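Appendix B, example 12.
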Amino acid sequence: MRKEQKLKAHLEKTRGQLQESNRLLVKERQNNYELRQEIEARNRKIKKLELQGKKSRMIESENQELLDSFDKSEYIRQQQKSLISQLKEELKAG
């Protein structure tokens, strides 16, 4: 009878350990699921930020092109203005 009680006690202890292991496994799976969700959310945010950065670089490039074009136009306008002034002077003198 004593042996039987020892076996029952050992069986109960083993069942308790198994239940605890199962509980920890479920908890770990839940934690993993939550971490995967967080990783996916952060990946989406990273992609969004990368896209915003790309758009920002494109806009910056376009703005630089517009600025360069404006500077060229201003230079040409100043050259034309100077040429017109010279022609007026020549007409007055001539």
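The two ends are 137 Å apart (CA to CA). The helical segments are 2-93.
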